[in-house]
Fold:
Amino acid sequence: RGSVIYELSRQYDQPSGTFHRSLLLHQLRHTVKRFCQEKLAPYADEIDKANEFPRMREFWKEAGELGLLGITAPVEYGGTGLGYLDHVIVMEEISRVSGAIALSYGAHSNLCVNQMVRHGNQKQKEKYLPKLVTGEHVGALAMSESNSGSDVVSMKLTARKEGDHYVLNGNKFWITNGPDADVLIVYGKTNPEAAARGITAFIIEKGMPGFSTAQKLDKFGMRGSNTCEIIFEDCKVPEQNMLGPVNKGVYVLMSGLDLERLVLSAGPIGIMQAVLDHAIPYLHIREAFGQKIGHFQLMQGKMADMYTRLSSSRQYLYNVARACDKGHFSSMDCAGVILYCAENATQVALDGIQCLGECLVVCTAELVMPTSHIPSIAAVVSA
Amino acid sequence: MTARVLVGVKRVIDYAVKIRVKPDNTGVVTDGVKHSMNPFCEIAVEEAVRLKEKKLVQEVVAVSCGPQQVQETIRTALAMGADRGIHVEVSGKDYDSLGPLQVSKILAALAKKEEASLIILGKQAIDDDCNQTGQMTAALLDWPQGTFASELVIEGDKVKVVREIDGGLETIKLNMPVVVTADLRLNTPRYATLPNIMKAKKKKIANMKPGDLGVDMTSRVEVLRVDEPPQRQAGVKVESVEDLVSKLKEAGRI
Structure:
């Protein structure tokens, strides 16, 4: 069924929102779409059911070969040297096939890789970027704690200086890619008294003594994007692994959040597109009361609503991404765009459920999946 | 090592699109409709790029005939690994009536100009299903041809081609220069990786007109009318063989 949906979606493949003046963006989208259809779509169902992606590491390397994992990383470290709009398009097309894997992809390529690109020094970039970009390593980022979500600067993890090391103690929660990550960017308090101005970012490697991960979380949505709690017990981190200046981590964190929100907004866009990919053809096939249900006014209203919510979200996102590519970073717009996209996605998914009706109850996770991802989007918004 | 491979790539309506006939029955609707590279042309490009990677050829040149938009198709070929492109500008009425005869004349002229020793084309285009361009090009150049290739091996100055034919597989050996047309099982085309898509931006596409190559664009074919295939009628169930035979007789079929 998946390939039928793909073929149907090729027909109205260029709604006005995806008409790009740049051929490069077309080619990018086309390549990622094909890649995901072959390498991800066949597993999407099972990933959601089992909360696991057994061939994740191979997929990561394949994505690395295509150049997807280091979109915003400089070419000299093996990156692709593209911009935020390009990253958004890639994220969107992956999300269209699997919202969960797209989230893991976003955490790796934006939260981890992009932060490293923006704040790492030469040595750190040379050491960590190449393997993150090829997909040999999986990346993650950890700021949230069980008691510090929206109020993230109230985090309690401490980083105590001892000679040429920092000793980390504490836990982080809700960490996407936590179970798999080889490299993590972790925020901690080097000066707990100074509140927000006492935060510093560090690069952690799996295998550092004192660093461990707890069990994978069994989530309602985004199943297959491995999430867990990570634990630091007297974990010694060399001071050359400090990312950015000491006690200035809040700027690293907050500016990173803007771009995280920007790129991850493509997640809900992909999900909305997936809902349309399934719902629109269905409305043209299913009959009731002697006609195709797509002819009923209520369904037509829903189609119009779904389409316009997707299109307006898309235009907002692409425009903000373009502005960022030109160097205009607006926190308000980055936050606005994920709020807007996520809320629209929830609404579109609910409309999609109405369109698919009882078919949804009987069908496989492939159709249910887009909708079950919505609660997780809200989590990103509150962050 | 062979110097140059010429690969023809055609911009066609995407295979997944539902085709609609224009209300005036002069053709099909193409405005605003998704177009892509002809799938068999993709296979041809892939084969040429593989030959280059094996260092059996030095340069792959992608060619397309048509209006401005075909540059997208050439860029796709460049992103897959072709070295440079040639856009032969054909538009308006000439484009409407563009067919295998004119294209093969253009390709033949280009092959001479570029001193190509190998031309790889898709076996046919999915819009007109002509399956003529490769054959005509070979005839115009007086080169041997290996059509419906499912395997292509360069052996010195000869080419071994395994052809998919009605009876099975036929293996032939041809003296270069040759024309080969790609069939489905020749290879699986690669994804254009992002770095290659970006590298392709810098590759050159030369522009020229058919006149520059001395090609006469007059069509020998005139399309009178385009119609949808007749609607499929519902079948009739019969009870017995006698019934079937009498119904066939009634319908004048036997």
In short: The two ends of chain B are 60 Å apart (CA to CA). Chain B has a mean pLDDT of 94.
